[in-house]
Structure formats: C-alpha cells, structure tokens
Design a protein that fits this description.
The complex is a heterodimer. Helix content of chain A is 59%, strand content 0%. Chain A is mostly helical. Chain A has two domains: 98 residues, Orthogonal Bundle (Rna Polymerase Sigma Factor, Chain: A), CATH 1.10.1740; 98 residues, Arc Repressor Mutant, subunit A (Orthogonal Bundle). In chain A, α2 packs across α3, α3 packs across α4 and α9 crosses α10. The termini of chain A are far apart. Chain B is mainly alpha-helical. Chain B has one domain. Chain B contains six helices and no strands. In chain B, α4 crosses α5. Chain B is elongated. The chains are: A mainly alpha, B mainly alpha. The interface between A and B is large, with 43 and 36 residues.
Chain lengths: 216, 96
C-alpha cells in the first residue's frame, strides 16, 4: 500500500519508483469528477509530454497512459491538494519506467563559469554599441523577437535534468517542493538545476537571437 | 492559464526613502530564482526588495529576469493539447 501512494508533499526518493498497481477495494471513480479535477491540467501535461518524449506522437501516448493511470489511482488523490503536481509526478514516473528504459542516466557535464544575468549582460553590451536607441527598455524590447519555436528549441536543447526543472518552474509555475515531488529529487537539487539551467537557457536564447539577427 | 498578476518590480520599490541596505548584491542575486518564483517567505522577500530599492543595477537586472520569465511563459503556454486527443481521453474514461 505504501509504495502505491503517489502524492505530492511526501518524501523524496532518489530513483524512479515502481509503477503502483491497484490493490484492494476502493470506490469506482466518477469520470465527471475526475475530469473536473484533472481536466484543467491537460494542456500543461501535454506540453510536458512533448518536452519529455521530443515528438507529438509519443507525447500523445504518454499523456494517455498518464491520464488513465491517474484515473485508476484517483482514489488515492486527496481532493484539495495540488492536482497538477500529482499528475506531473505520475507522468514522470510513467515516462522513466516505460519510455526511457534505455535512456542514459547521470550525464555529467560541467556548466560552471556561466555567469548570472547572461542574456541581460550580452544585450547591454550589444546595445552600448549604439543599436536601437530611443527605446525606453531596449533590453526587454529584444524579448519580443523570440518566437515560440525558438523558445521551445532552446528549452529542448537543455540536458534533460535541467530542462525538466527549468520548464516546470518557468513555464508551468510549480513550486520548488512540487517540482521536487514530481521529479523525485531533493529541493536543493531543484534549486541548483534551476540556477544552472536558466543560465544555459539564456545562453541558448542569446545564440538563437544572435543567429536570427545576423540572418535578418 | 493566466500569467501571475504580479506588479512590475519598479512599482514595488519605494524610492523616496533610502534605508540601510541589508544585502550585498551577491546576497540578493543568490536569491534571484527564489524571488522570481515566489519561493521566499514575506520577510525574506522584503529584504530582497529593500536591496532593489537602493541598488539600481540590481533592480534593472531583476526586472529583466522577471520580464524574460513572464515573456517565455506567456508564449509557450499557448501550446495546447489537441482537441482530438481530449475527445479520445474523454471517451476512454467512459469505456468500463
């Protein structure tokens, strides 16, 4: 029973957990109640599935597996707790267990030395050369040039462990504790991955932005 | 999903009264992500805001980071689950 519990706010585990199987008696789930609670998170789940699998077809399968598993285990969900974090955790567990069996684990790359405010500093350097005068906020004006495809390419290019943390915090607005629960990592790891991951993302955005500008 | 209704940072800092700056820049910057992601307690947040009142360069940098995050979020969260998939899930839940 204990290992079948998939709830945010619980302890943290280092490794992906076995996927729980339904055990014992529990009342049948009303699909309308389930959809009212979980349906609002489908878009966020879909975006996460695309990021995890890297393609829309597998993303749909992953979302379907996640959603149906959540339905089967809905009796374990405590109403009023964070449904989004609960769903993300199930998706991450399903993904690690069933979609990424052969995946490489524990990639070690050094990202030390990347500065804080990477993108801001590049833009300020760039603008001090006299580009774009007369705008009140020249640095933020540049952000309007970033389109969805560019942003997604930059996020997808991050190493997976950074990508997941950065995306959940930046795009889906999960708290650090919720991210820790969803990914089964300590909160301290969420912080360090976010810190490095956001710098990496800014570097990638700068590279895309710069490439675009040169071509344009 | 609506973006947070947080006020721009410039409007959250008071300029008329300079106090004692409790932080060096590095201490504020260490809390950058926690600050932007609303992970600080109210007293912790107040200390960072106090630094931003006094330190113009940090205010500009923090403001940029906040604008960047909100801009990325607003764009990417326009991607939605396909309607056909929603319909399929809806009927799957109702197949015994």
């Amino acid at each position: 029973m204990a290992e079948a519990e998939v709830q945010p706010g619980g302890g943290v585990a280092a490794a992906p957990e076995p996927i729980p199987e339904a055990v014992g008696e529990h009342p049948p789930t009303d699909p309308d109640v389930f959809e009212a609670e979980m349906g609002p998170h489908l878009d966020a789940l879909y975006r996460n599935a695309v990021r995890l699998t890297g393609n829309p077809h597998d993303a749909e399968d992953l979302l379907q597996d996640t959603y149906l598993r959540a339905y089967r285990f809905f009796y374990q969900y405590q109403p009023g707790t964070n449904a989004k974090a609960w769903l993300f955790r199930i998706m991450n567990t399903v993904f690690l267990n069933e979609y990424r069996r052969k995946a490489r684990q524990g990639e070690t790359v050094s990202y030390d030395g990347l500065e804080d405010f990477y993108l801001y500093n590049r833009l300020v350097e760039d603008l001090s050369g006299g580009a774009r005068p007369g705008t009140e906020n020249p640095e933020t004006a540049v952000l309007e040039q970033l389109d969805i495809e560019t942003i997604q390419r930059a996020i997808d290019a991050l190493p997976p462990e950074f990508r997941d943390t950065v995306a959940l915090a930046t795009l889906e607005e999960l708290s650090y504790q919720e991210i820790a629960d969803a990914l089964s990592i300590p909160v301290g790891t969420v912080r360090s991955r976010l810190s490095r991951g956001r710098k990496l993302l800014q570097k990638a955005l700068w590279d895309y932005l710069n490439g675009e500008e040169k071509r344009g | 999903m609506t973006p947070p209704a947080g006020k721009p940072l410039e409007t959250q800092v008071r300029e008329e009264c300079m106090g004692i700056d409790p932080y060096e820049c590095e201490e504020a910057i260490q809390r950058l992500n926690d600050f932007l992601d609303h992970q600080l307690t109210e007293p912790e947040r107040a200390v960072v805001l106090k630094h931003l009142e006094i330190c113009r360069p940090c205010l500009r940098r923090f403001t940029f980071e906040q604008t960047l995050i909100v801009s990325l979020r607003q764009k990417v969260t326009r991607v939605c689950a396909p309607q056909a998939l929603r319909d399929k899930l809806h009927s799957l839940l109702r197949q015994g």
